[in-house]
Amino acid sequence: MVACYTGERLANRRASFELLIHYLLESFGYSIDRGLARGLNFLENLHFSQEQL
Q1: To 5 degrees, how large is the angle CA 47–CA 19–CA 29?
Q2: Which among 1, 31, 41, 51 has the fewest CB atoms less than 10 Å away?
């Protein structure tokens, strides 16, 4: 979604993103997640300057 906002020149607009993980049934032994690593990397490197605060 960040790439989409940047591509549409909306990068300076306020936005919110959601990551949702449902509980799996006991019979399910796996989960399919897409883009999770990219999202976690973004959050790990997220920081704000003193001016932004």
Answers
A1: 130
A2: 51
